[in-house]
Amino acid sequence: MKKGVMRPGHVQLRVLDMAEAVKHYRDLMGLIEMHTDEAGRVYLKGWTEVDKFSVVLRQADEAGMDFMGFKVVDEATLDSLRQELEAFGGLDVSEIPAGELAGCGRRIRFTAPTGHVFELFATKEQPGKYGVGHHNPEAWPRDVGGMRATRFDHCLLYGDDLDNTHKLFTEVLGFDLAEQVLDPAGNRVAQFLTTSMKAHDVAFIKHGEKNKLHHASFYLDTWYDVLRAADLIAMTDTSIDIGPTRHGLTHGQTIYFFDPSGNRNEVFAGGDYFYSDHPVTTWDAEQLGKAIFYHDRVLNERFLSVLT
What we know:
Elements (H helix, E strand, L loop, with lengths): L4 E11 L2 H11 L3 E5 L5 E4 L9 E5 L4 E9 L2 H14 L5 E3 L10 E5 L5 E5 L29 E9 L2 H11 L3 E7 L5 E7 L7 E5 L5 E8 L3 H13 L4 E7 L5 E7 L5 E7 L10 E4 L3 H5 L8 H5 L3
Parallel strand pairs: 1-4, 5-8, 9-12, 10-17, 13-16
Antiparallel strand pairs: 1-5, 2-3, 3-4, 6-7, 7-8, 9-13, 10-11, 11-12, 14-15, 15-16
């Protein structure tokens, strides 16, 4: 049952060199640079996103993800979900005051059983879609370069306790399980969770360590845009992981690459849609190669082992 969580709202990534990171996310991926706060964090967004930001970059000594945030429908829902998170038990739940992220209201922060930090928020400044607005809008802004990523879409995260994280996201936050991978004993080793009509809004893969980021993903409009992204990756000598190819899971058309700090990015197009009455799509673990890389049907070692 839906609990008022609408969609992914933002992700804060740790980067080793801010100037290089901004060049990557702004100039190569085509995100719009919106703000730099007093702490030196840089805020960016995809051009179709109405909220002020969806990506925050923080300079640090180690790459990875600080937290991922989801937007809820209103402040009353935020209060209600805080109570449910506290009643769930075993979670470190706290409130971050409004303004700690520029332009964002108060946030309820909690640590999932996989060790990842998540946030819920209801209020954020809305400057609107970049370059087109919402009154007699043009089709697209003519001054966006790079890959022209339209939005921050999801994260794939690695951690140990998938069962309790699944319970948290489905029973407390109202997500649906759209796809899963089961081992021969019937244990879930991957889960793709959605709070919308998308194929997934966050996904988890079973891993011995807590709190690892596999990738942050951004949406493109078409398969041609994915091929164009591949050209830009080659033109800029950006470190590539795999692609362009297609997923079996979600059926999206995809390419993976790395930012200068080693955080993995994905840009993709297409993919399945999901309604709450849809049955869960299940893959067998022995078919994981085809599930991830539908054409090659095998996984490369980097995809499995390189995490931040």
